[in-house]
Amino acid sequence: MLLAAWVIIQWLNIEGAMRNPSDPDLADTDRDLILLEQLEENPDATQASLATQLGVAVGTINWHLKRLIAKGYIKAGRVERRKLRYVITPEGLALRARLTLDFIKSSFRLYRLVRERSIDALQLVQRAGYTDIFIEGEGDVADICRLTCLEKGIKLAEGKDHAPVLHIQGLKVFVEGMVSSDLEESR
Length: 187
Fold this sequence. Notes:
This protein has 187 residues and is α/β, with parallel strands linked by helices. It is 52% helix and 16% strand.
């Protein structure tokens, strides 16, 4: 009896900080994982449909697929005269599992980093005597900061008028809006 386990991962949107975009090997592993997942879901997917789903050029998909085929992770066979079907090999399944675990480890490492930074900033705010804060920023990092505020008992302010501002830029978290006497008292 053949059992299949499906793992669906929602990518964290941490403004490109999940991976170092200047490192092509890491970008390749991200794309490899996405391609393997897409092909596992739909082996009849065309290169054009994969390119559209992933927001890249068809040539990029072609290059990645050829590389995965050459490494033995995928097999391609003709279904029709101009149509290919991609089958993930056992080695490809093992690669997908390893890449998934690497992704999860990296995600947790970044989560812990952002959480630590937000706790440090909120402790500064609490020591200065503030009970609420305004969060300026969007995305997953801002969501982690919001959850940390709730956990630490700090209210989320509706506006910047009477509360310090927790700024989020990429993975950086910093506080503005406290006067210098607040900062000195908090030390």
